Amino acid sequence: MTLHARIGEVTERIARRSESSRGQYLERIAIAGERKPNRTKLSCSNLAHGFAACGPGDKAALRGETAPNIGIITAYNDMLSAHQPYQRYPDLIKEAARAAGGVAEVAGGVPAMCDGVTQGQGGMELSLFSRDTIAMAAGIGLSHDMFDAAVYLGICDKIVPGLLIAALTFGHLPAVFIPAGPMPSGMPNPARSKARQLYAERKISWDELLDVEAKSYHAPGTCTFYGTANSNQMLMEIMGLHIPGASFVNPDTPLRDALTRAATSRALAITAQGNEYTPVGAVIDERAIVNGVVGLHATGGSTNHTLHLVAAAKAAGIRLTWDDFADLSEVVPLLARVYPNGKADVNDFHNAGGMQYLMRELLGEGLLHEDVRTAWGSGLSGYLKTPTLGEDGGIVWNEGRTTSGDETVLRPVSDPFSPEGGLALLDGNLGRAVIKVSAVQPEHQVVEAPALIFHSQEELSDAFRAGQLERDFVAVIRFQGPKANGMPELHKLTPTLGVLQDRGYKVALLTDGRMSGASGKVPAAIHVTPEAADGGPIAKLHDGDIVRVDPPRGRLHVFVDQAEFNAREAAVADLSGNEFGLGREMFRMFRANAQPAEMGAGVL
Per the UniProt record, which EC number(s) apply here (predicted)? Predict the structure, then answer.
């Protein structure tokens, strides 16, 4: 199928915009990739330190110049359900590496926080900045220069983006990302959402809500809704950094282990010692980035990736903008409905055909670049095969589904849920913002109502409990940007606003903070930039100003005489309460130097 004209136009535009920075990046990784294997340039003392703790066989292999060495970067901890299965992965990877004639060493561990634990808590103010911390921690692990390839063990919200930034910084090394898979389905996500709303109305007790939550988050594996963690897995597969079909196989199953062994073998096969050298910096080019954005739109993926993909692309010398997201959204149909965009979970998505069916449909309409380099060694058409377990315990590759197994979850391009993608860009006299519309019913998408100004989630919750929000309004939660308090997710607001919407009020959220990747049925204009702490227009809003949030027209507007609005003084906020506690004092430098949301909201 011929590439869709818009896909080609946006890709060419990105390439032209990035010509200088991308060229410099490719030159740097080419120089770094000339030395093979890397460890041979180390002094005897350096090298002896590097293999001192290895067993005799691995030590002998690392003394020579032929055995490739994989560096394992792991985000394992056993508090995160998604990451608990990684506990035994290093041993599995080492065994698979030896069987394939190589060696693997744990190069380093990186922090991994659970946004589900920190939602609405002070620790959430470290969440976004943990992405850049993870990238730097991974960089320290790889700085020993002992490795010929790297595998990355990470799944959740900021963890995969941070690992991807690190991988691209060490772009001369081949990279394979190895997932652990989603937990089996538990309490249906809509039932959990309803329970949260009932609790917000004080109609059920804390113990009753906790029982529901524990039945939802009940086992090792990734949470089953389609938030940032599962959007990460979609991205790694559609951008060619997983092996085919790896994203959504449940943990601790024979197929999951077989996929991990296959990923290890593949990482060894694509080092500079062999004939298929595939540095990750060449895999992630403008075409791969566009494929990632297309995947986000087609699945109604997480808004967080309007930050993370921008930051990761920059690490590869590629300049991605929100306008690129918006222009691609106009031509990419929404093909998947997974909670919060629907009632299904990611296990239902996988069983309906999953990534293989999704990519087949998008490729068939010319909406993806097929001619990309991948860790698997093929163009993107190589990702249409589905892995199953053979009688010998190895993987058998089968033709993926050509029809959807459940069109309430996954549809063909000929009959999409929506003709446009799940994310939209808003622009106007209040700045620029991102909004996820795939979960918002059409009748709720446009809200024109008086602004009510709050400087924290708690202020809004207090107003709700006091009965002050029984009306149409746009909730303005400001001083939540990266420079203010680290840009926490404001997911705590979702049940409250959902209750008010269900009562028949027109409600929307406007914030320079973030919402969870699971943001749902209430329209939320987020990542507003410039942020209030930078004196952005959002800081000049007053209670009662009429604000219009209008995704179909891409508009974000306040109806105040422009001269009067410009003459207003920007509000200021006392942010001293955000400076200490739960580690926030250690991230003062990050807040002071954070880039705007549209540039990735990081410090790297």
Answer: 4.2.1.12
